[in-house]
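Submission checklist for the structure archive. All mandatory fields must be present; incomplete records are returned to the submitter.

[x] Identifier: Thioredoxin
[x] Organism: Veillonella criceti
[x] Residue count: 67
[x] Sequence attached
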Amino acid sequence: MAVTKIESLEALETLLKDSSKVVVADFWATWCKPCELMNPEIEKLAEDMKDDLDVVTIDVEALKDVA
């Protein structure tokens, strides 16, 4: 499974409720340089651990109610 971009609080709540896997949430922002550096690692983690993890990204600027 690829990284899932969370678009709303409801989407996150549904994923957390329905997933049988551990959910890893990456909180990021466009202005965050360390976030940019971590993105390839997050993608690799999602691919390498796709059977065990659901990896999601959450834009802290767009989803302040989630962050």
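[x] Structure attached
Curator remark: Residues 4-59 form a domain with the Glutaredoxin fold (CATH 3.40.30.10). Strands lie at 4-5, 22-28, 53-59.
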